[in-house]
Amino acid sequence: MLTKLFTFVSIFDDIYDSYSTLEESKLLTIAIERWDEQAAEQLPGYMKFFYNKVLETVKDIEEDLKHQGNKNADYIKKLLIDATKCYYNEAKWREEGDAPATVEEHLLFSMPSSCCMHVPALALVAIGATSDVIDWAMTYPKIIRASCVVGRVINDVASHERERDQYSGQQQVMSTVEACMEENSYTAKEDAYNKLRELIEESWMDISEEHLRLAAAQPPAPLLEVVVDATRMLDFLYKDQDAYTLPQALKRVADSIYVDPI
Ligand SMILES: [Mg+2]
Questions:
Q1: How far is the CA of 67 from the centre of ligand 1 (A)?
Q2: How far is ligand 1, taken at its centre, from the CA of residue 219, in Å?
Q3: Which top-rank group of organisms is this from (predicted)?
Q4: For the chain, which residues make up each domain, given as ranges?
Q5: CATH of region 100-244, choose from 1.10.730.10, 1.10.10.10, 1.10.600.10, 2.60.120.340
Q6: How do residues 77-108 score in pLDDT, each as one tens digit?
Q7: What is the pTM of this model?
Q8: pLDDT tens digits, residue range 119-153?
């Protein structure tokens, strides 16, 4: 279930970030909010297949979960609708807004659209967390917020390094790297990378602290581990390079788990 939903989230990200015009992405956001096959009529041709696939797949997943006695299957729809709104807000801000002067200002829009709240929240739905816990996750408590900051910033640093090599510095989207350079009057990108790596470290400290603090109370520890593990996955994907965009970098690891287990 998570693989399917994660795939959708990735495709949404590509549509909003790189493929659609703002007007088209607005149509997609409205259609997703309607969540109705008829709404596909209003979409550009290239989105129709994808849109219908999302509706169809989520319907199957919801049925499966309901068969398992899961009472919160409806949250999948809610979370995907919310994710597309976050993507749309980010796209709109990029196109119409002023260039952010600080990392914090950048994160106002780019933190929710990291979808690092949505993915663990979907995992919480899958493992049968109560609606209280899923609602809690959706309010961006400190541990989730820190996970989103790790996700956004680690992605920006890794892809910035990759894009710099690939396109010799032609950055299409202003990332937290540029915001960090602007904020600190840096001229070298490496200074921004180092500063942002410090922010990642600090956010990990928040995650550990919140994990320990909350585990003693509510929600129970296994649910918090979903958030910690989702953030670990990001660390694994982006630590050395942008292995999310260039997954061949993970071939050896995937082989050692699934093909030739060590
Ligand atoms: Mg994006």
A1: 34
A2: 29
A3: Eukaryota
A4: 1-97, 100-244
A5: 1.10.600.10
A6: 999 999 999 999 999 998 888 889 999 999 99
A7: 0.91
A8: 999 999 999 999 999 999 999 999 999 999 999 99
